[in-house]
């Protein structure tokens, strides 16, 4: 029994141990399983995290790629739009150029060769359809004349010209027409001598010299340049035009197809010359040896004639009622015509006015007939060597009537001057000098070279009247013969000055 009990106990113990071992094994297995589960869970979590990160990265990359693609598409669209705009602009420009060329060719009869040679003012006119004239103020003392009167400006403005007029405030150079007269007809007023800042395509219109400051001349100037006959400083002036790329349309050389000047101050020069000669004659009859005073401009022809008629009447009364005899050589020309007209209008009878021209002088001088008249007015255009009309030696004659010589032609320095003793210029301040032969009394000589200034109004009116038809043609200066000749002459003279 005991053994049985012992065996039983042993079996029990064994069973217990087995159970324990089993329990232990079970616990171990459980722990292992738990650990495994944990590891699995961890691995799963890690895998999940990795997958998430990968997904995120992928999404980011996708977004970036999308943005890049979008930007590229935008840039492409922009470039396309730009190209389209450029193409459109080019097409527009081409169409405009085509229209311009068509207008030029069909409407304005444009030829490329003509355009290349076109002076700046004409080119400006072609493009803007207006010609700009700029009437400058004068700087030469006693110059009151103008090449453009307000009336002419009014006409030109009506024809589409633009006209600027410089004020002329200085008394000694005051234009015969008031600034306000120009303003009233629609001209723009500008400051005196402001023409250097005028638009480059404006034509600067004047009469006498420009300020001699050596500055380059950038405009086209229309005035008396006095530089085509090798006068003092001619090269310097032409070089100024060259330096500034400007040009000169010299008023003295504007000629028509027959070679005649289109406008000249000759008539009024003769008119004023004849007046001054008669006035000096009157002065000697009325005042004897007293020096003859200064001459100054008259407001108009009527006042000059009124004054002169009264003087002649008074002088004739002191000369036994005898009116002077006047001989005009070159009487058929502009100056001669004016000289004869003044004499007759001032009251000298037609019979006392002797008119000589080529026919009367063709036998060749000198001419004793000149000693038998009281006044000799020379108005010829000296173009070739001729023998003198009268010499100083001839004046030595007791019964000589001649006492006044007015040399309107003023060829004082010409070696073929037909009045050799008229060899220096006189002025408005000192209009005469005397030649004193041993017998026969002194002879007063007048050699003023700007006689028309004595009557600035009529001189301006007449000159402007004759010049106006050519001024109207300035719009077509690239084809008009008057202006073409003037441009050609300028180019020739400039080339000579630069040679
Ligand atoms: N002193 C001044 O203020 C002034 C102003 C303007 C013009 N001028 C000068 O007056 C002169 C004449 O100018 P214009 O416009 O009357 O010229 P113009 O051509 O109109 O007239 C000249 C006349 O002189 C005649 N003539 C020429 N040679 C002659 C001769 N040997 N004998 C006789 N007659 C002759 C011609 O047949 C013509 O009729 C020019 O020398 C000009 O420069 C002077």
TrEMBL record:
Its EC number is 1.5.1.7. The chain crosses the membrane at residues 6-34, 41-69, 75-108. This is Saccharopine dehydrogenase [NAD(+), L-lysine-forming]. CDD domains: SDH. The keyword Amino-acid biosynthesis applies. Pathway: Amino-acid biosynthesis; L-lysine biosynthesis via AAA pathway; L-lysine from L-alpha-aminoadipate (fungal route): step 3/3. GO terms for molecular function: saccharopine dehydrogenase (NAD+, L-lysine-forming) activity; saccharopine dehydrogenase activity. One of its GO terms (biological process) is lysine biosynthetic process via aminoadipic acid. It catalyses: L-saccharopine + NAD(+) + H2O = L-lysine + 2-oxoglutarate + NADH + H(+). Residues 134-272 form the Alanine dehydrogenase/pyridine nucleotide transhydrogenase N-terminal domain. GO terms for cellular component: cytoplasm. Keywords: Amino-acid biosynthesis, Disulfide bond, Membrane, NAD, Oxidoreductase, Transmembrane, Transmembrane helix. It comes from Monosiga brevicollis. The keyword Transferase does not apply. Residues 304-447 form the Alanine dehydrogenase/pyridine nucleotide transhydrogenase NAD(H)-binding domain. Monomer. InterPro entries: AASS, AlaDH/PNT_N, AlaDH/PNT_NAD(H)-bd, Lys1, NAD(P)-bd_dom_sf. It comes from the Eukaryota. Belongs to the AlaDH/PNT family. The lineage of its organism: Eukaryota, Choanoflagellata, Craspedida, Salpingoecidae, Monosiga.
């Amino acid at each position: 029994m005991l053994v049985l009990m012992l065996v039983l106990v042993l079996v029990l113990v064994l069973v217990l141990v087995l159970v324990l071992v089993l329990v232990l094994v079970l616990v171990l297995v459980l722990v292992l399983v738990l650990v495994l589960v944990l590891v699995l869970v961890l691995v799963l979590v890690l895998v999940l995290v990795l997958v998430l990160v990968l997904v995120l990265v992928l999404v980011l990359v996708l977004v970036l790629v999308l943005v890049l693609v979008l930007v590229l598409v935008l840039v492409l669209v922009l470039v396309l739009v730009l190209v389209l705009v450029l193409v459109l602009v080019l097409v527009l420009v081409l169409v405009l150029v085509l229209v311009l060329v068509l207008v030029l060719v069909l409407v304005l009869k444009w030829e490329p060769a003509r355009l290349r040679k076109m002076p700046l003012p004409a080119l400006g006119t072609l493009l803007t359809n207006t010609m700009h004239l700029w009437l400058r103020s004068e700087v030469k003392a006693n110059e009151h004349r103008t090449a453009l009167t307000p009336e002419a400006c009014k006409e030109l403005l009506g024809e589409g010209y633009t006209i600027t007029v410089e004020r002329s405030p200085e008394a000694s150079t005051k234009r015969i027409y008031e600034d306000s007269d120009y303003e009233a007809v629609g001209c723009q007023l500008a400051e005196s001598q402001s023409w250097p800042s005028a638009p480059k395509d404006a034509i600067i219109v004047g009469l006498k010299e420009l300020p001699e400051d050596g500055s380059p001349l950038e405009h086209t100037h229309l005035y008396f340049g006095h530089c085509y006959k090798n006068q003092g400083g001619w090269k310097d002036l032409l070089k100024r035009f060259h330096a500034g790329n400007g040009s000169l349309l010299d008023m003295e050389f504007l000629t028509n197809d027959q070679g005649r000047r289109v406008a000249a101050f000759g008539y009024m020069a003769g008119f004023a010359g004849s007046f001054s000669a008669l006035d000096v004659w009157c002065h000697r009859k009325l005042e004897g040896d007293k020096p003859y005073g200064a001459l100054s401009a008259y407001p108009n022809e009527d006042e000059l004639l009124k004054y002169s008629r009264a003087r002649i009447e008074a002088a004739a009364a002191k000369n036994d009622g005898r009116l002077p005899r006047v001989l005009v050589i070159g009487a058929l020309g502009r100056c001669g015509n004016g000289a004869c007209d003044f004499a007759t209008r001032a009251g000298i009878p037609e019979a006392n006015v002797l008119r000589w021209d080529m026919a009367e002088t063709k036998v060749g001088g000198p001419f004793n007939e000149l000693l038998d008249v009281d006044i000799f007015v020379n108005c010829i255009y000296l173009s070739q060597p001729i023998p003198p009309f009268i010499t100083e030696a001839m004046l030595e004659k007791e019964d000589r009537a001649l006492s006044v010589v007015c040399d309107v032609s003023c060829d004082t320095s010409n070696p073929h001057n037909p009045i050799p003793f008229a060899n220096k210029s006189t002025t408005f301040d000192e209009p005469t000098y005397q030649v004193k032969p041993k017998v026969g009394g002194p002879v007063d000589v007048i050699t003023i070279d700007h006689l028309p200034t004595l009557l600035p109004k009529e001189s301006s009116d007449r000159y402007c009247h004759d010049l106006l038809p050519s001024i109207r043609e300035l719009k077509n200066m690239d084809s008009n013969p008057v202006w073409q000749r003037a441009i050609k002459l300028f180019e020739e003279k400039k080339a000579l000055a630069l040679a």
